[in-house]
Amino acid sequence: MAAKRKTPVKTRNPDLIRGVGKYSRSKMYHKRGLWAIKAKNGGVFPRHDSKPKSPAAAEKPPKFYPAEDIKKPLLNKRKSRPTKLRASITPGTVLILLAGRFMGKRVVFLKQLTSGLLLVTGPFKINGVPLRRVNQSYVIATSTKVDISGVNVEKFDDKYFSKEVQKKKKKSEGEFFEAEKGDKKKLPEEKKEDQTAVDTVLIKSIEGVPDLKAYLGARFSLKSGMKPHELVF
Amino acid sequence: MPFKRYVEIGRVALVNYGKDYGKLVVIVDVVDQNRALVDAPDMVRSQMNFKRLTLADIKIDINRVPKKKTLIDAMEKADVKNKWENSSWGRKLIVQKRRTSLNDFDRFKLMLAKIKFWVVFNVLKIGIMLGILFPIPMKAGMVRQELAKLKKETAA
């Protein structure tokens, strides 16, 4: 390959209108310096003959020919990326949860995980919502923001929230009829510490704003006369 | 019941329909039985059907179709903006706008303020009724205090 220029050249032959260049063939010959290339090469254009191909390795005939043509699967260039985050949701936004156990709770948004889910915390001491993942579609973003600068959420990702893998126990006949012992799953101490680590900083910045703590502790509900399409959140 | 507010040159009106909804405009000329030429400092002079206008109590002193600058000066002289904002209609509109623009957090704070106010109010009311808190002659002053509180809260 010829050496590439560091900066690509803008066309030397600007268009007068589409299909008609400003300079004629002979002018362009001189502009492009083809005469210099010829002179360097003894009066002819340099020829670049293709290199002789090394003999390809002898292909063995395949052992198996399928009876019918196998279809090639279509090309898939899809890149998986997290759901597009609404512009109104930024770290520190107060969100209203719309579904699930904590329906109506006002909660602080921390960050978006790679799966697209939102990492959210109550804080736990204020309204009982722990570090939790929440889907963007089940959330109303309010315009209230909390200062989240002191909080470190680097360590939380989707793996942190995965369920523990239960080891399969081989049951003998007698045990089949015994009620399955439901061990109360204790929350590991580590998760409790993570929760307090995130929350203490948050609570400090929340207490800086008057009434914000009570606001986060209260649930949201539609009252008589409230029209959701007219409410400003 | 005779009419009190007339369509005349210089009558200030509120637009109640359309692209310019909520704007205060001045009637600058009458086109025909149904339409007026209407102008405001922040809009291009245009025609508008009278049905889109609600006449206000304010009138300014201008000639037919004044220049924009003359119009603005006349509006300043008549102090249309302040007269409007201090009129009961104007104040109501301002309160309405404030109410619709309330944030979820603002609504929460308003609720807290209302609860606080009414708790105090009711305690004092019962106190007065039972004659415990203050002797009866002080009642008028008390009422005025409650009204002042109410104004302060709802103004927030």
Please describe the topology of this protein.
The complex is a heterodimer of chains A (233) and B (156).
Chain A: E1 15-17, E2 20-21, H1 25-31, H2 34-40, E3 93-97, E4 106-112, E5 118-121, H3 124-127, E6 132-134, E7 139-145, H4 173-177, H5 189-207, H6 212-217
Chain B: E1 11-15, E2 24-30, E3 35-40, E4 43-49, E5 53-59, H1 68-78, H2 80-86, H3 88-100, H4 104-129, H5 139-155
Antiparallel strand pairs in B: 1-2, 1-5, 2-3, 3-4
Can you offer a commentary on this structure?
The complex is a heterodimer of chains A (233) and B (156). Chain A is of the alpha+beta class. Chain A has helices at 25-31, 34-40, 124-127, 173-177, 189-207, 212-217, and strands spanning 15-17, 20-21, 93-97, 106-112, 118-121, 132-134, 139-145. In chain A, the strands form two sheets. A five-stranded antiparallel sheet of chain A has the order 6-5-4-3-7. In chain A, strand 1 and strand 2 form a beta hairpin. The radius of gyration of chain A is 34 Å and the shape is elongated. The two termini of chain A are 61 Å apart. The model of chain A has no long low-confidence stretch (mean pLDDT 88). Chain B folds into two domains: 11-101, SH3 type barrels, CATH 2.30.30.30; 106-154, no CATH class. Chain B contains five helices and five strands, in the order E-E-E-E-E-H-H-H-H-H. Chain B is of the alpha+beta class. In chain B, strands 4-3-2-1-5 form a five-stranded antiparallel sheet. The model of chain B has no long low-confidence stretch (mean pLDDT 88). Chain B has helices spanning 68-78, 80-86, 88-100, 104-129, 139-155; strands at 11-15, 24-30, 35-40, 43-49, 53-59. In chain B, helix 4 (104-129) packs antiparallel against helix 5 (139-155).
